[in-house]
Design a protein that fits this description.
The chain is mainly α. It has a domain at 21-57. It has helices at 7-12, 46-53. The chain is built from 2 helices and no strands. Bound molecules: zinc ion.
Length: 57
């Protein structure tokens, strides 16, 4: 089990604009948002969720 599928994140990130670069943390498209220490955020940045909702700041 060397390949870890992060399906738990797929759920919470379903609301975020994963096809876009995150305007907050700078995560690449289709990559998860990262905290400044490099850890994957357990929830996407709020700005990225708003991108998905179409209300671009
Ligand atoms: Zn982000």
């Amino acid at each position: 089990m060397t390949q870890r599928r992060l399906r738990i994140f797929d759920d919470v990130y379903a609301d975020a604009a994963m096809e876009r670069q995150c305007p907050n943390c700078g995560a690449e498209p289709n990559d998860y948002c990262r905290r400044p220490d490099g850890e994957i955020r357990s929830v996407p940045c709020i700005l990225r969720v708003r991108l998905a909702e179409g209300s671009t700041p």
